[in-house]
Amino acid sequence: MFDLRSRRLYLCVPARKDMAVFLPQVLRGGVDIVQLREKHLTDEVRLASARTMRPICRDFGVPFIMNDSPELALESGADGVHVGQDDVSVERCRRLMGDTAIIGLSTHAKDEFLEGLSSQASYLSAGPIVPTPTKLGRPGTGVAYATACEQQSDRPVFVTGGVTDQNVTSLVNAGLRRFVIVRYLTQAKEPEKAARLLREALDIALSAVTVEPT
User: How far apart are CA 64 and CA 27, in angstroms?
Assistant: First the structure.
């Protein structure tokens, strides 16, 4: 059973040919939860990637999450599944995967977030705080939305949208505590170095503020 409250850097990564090299690099750098976010490839390809990622995550003591499909999560031995507003319900995921599985839910607006709080989700994501290519056509929610979600939540909130080592301090100062990372790491020329820079900036920022137990 993983303590999600202690997790700070959540990597969403598509299937990639160098996964066996890339994933240990970013985990050594400080990523502490990983999701295979792949919406367009076949189930066979997604499972193959998951079967590469799962044992690596296990070796590092890091939760491995599948995107969208609780069925594939079960088949791959993932620790949980993350679903969006248009995917299967959190309740269905919970029925299929059991009480100890990690179930995540994306939210992009106040009503979605409040509804998520009444669900059986293990954690919620909020954002994207700025427009991002991974959410084409979706406007940014702004930092204030994510901060309000953090303040209202009784469970961990992971913030999405353009987080880097350059802006994470200001986001922490705004009241945010946990972050989803995509392009900053998946497009990095030196993934381990990039992850380490971000983790160090985040840890320094957190040490400078009073972190309430959320």
Answer: 12
Residue 139: is its pLDDT beyond 80? no
- Residue 98's pLDDT is what? 96
Is 214 a member of any domain? no
Q: Is 37 a catalytic residue?
A: yes
* Cβ-based burial of 7 (10 A; exposed 0-12, middle 13-18, buried ≥19): middle
Can 6 be counted among the known catalytic residues? no
| E strand map for 47-165 | 64-67, 80-83, 102-107, 123-126, 157-159
120 contact partners, CB below 8 Å, separation of at least 6: 90, 91, 94, 103
- Determine contact, residues 95/125, Cβ cutoff 8 Å: no
Q: Is residue 212 part of a domain?
A: no
Write out the H or E segment, with its range, that includes residue 35. Answer: strand 33-36
- Which of the residues 46, 54, 135, 177 is marked catalytic? 135
Residue 66 maps to which CATH number?
3.20.20.70
Tell me the pTM: 0.94
Task: Report the domain count for the chain.
Answer: 1
**Residue 106 is a catalytic residue:** yes
Q: Which of 49, 69, 106, 125 is catalytic?
A: 106
